[in-house]
Specification:
Number of domains: 1
Number of strands: 5
Largest sheet: 5 strands, antiparallel
Oligomer: single chain
Structural class: alpha+beta
CATH class: Alpha Beta
Shape: globular
Strand content: 25-35%
Length: about 90
């Protein structure tokens, strides 16, 4: 992936790519998340990935904002499917 990734229950949860934080969130919440100024759809492979958002530093200026997004990733992690192991 080219960055630092944190896994929870063998599933990608949060990562850091360059200056942004990647959050794996519920795809049903995706459109709401990217309406915010500091957020965009992850397109690491040049292909938009619903359920993965990139957040720049303006989207997590406070501990409350940061904690909100971490909680969103952990909420979805319970429902997310683990990648097939090779």
């Amino acid at each position: 992936m080219g960055g630092l990734t944190f896994m929870v229950n063998d599933k990608m949860c949060v990562g850091i790519i360059k200056e942004e934080m990647m959050c794996r969130i519920d795809p049903n919440f995706h459109e709401t998340a990217i309406e915010k100024t500091a957020f965009r759809t992850m397109d690491f492979t040049k292909r938009p990935m619903k359920g993965y958002v990139m957040i720049d530093d303006t989207g997590m200026k406070s501990k409350k904002e940061f904690d909100f997004w971490i909680s969103k990733t952990l909420e979805f992690n319970i429902k997310a499917k683990s990648s097939k192991k090779k």
